[in-house]
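Hi V.,

You were right to ask for the full record rather than a summary. Here it is.
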Amino acid sequence: MIIWAFYKDSYQLQSLIGEELKMKRYAPFFIIGFILFITLGDKVLPGELGKSSTQTRIALNNFAINLFPTIKRPKNPNARTEKELEQVEQKR
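Predicted structure:
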């Protein structure tokens, strides 16, 4: 109903809805094109476009890697167990 306040003419409203449907129709093509640009752009596209494809891929890779924090693994995972065993042996 709020849309009617901005678009009093029904033709304007229909054209707005039509534009939204067109964008929904072409969205898969844009997504596929973007994926192809990232994966094959540096091999297929000349010059600066190929470089920008490579930079985009590197940026997305770094973003995906940085989503997960690095886990610091202990150097000796059995250190705590070994300390407990030593304490038990000393008590005997």
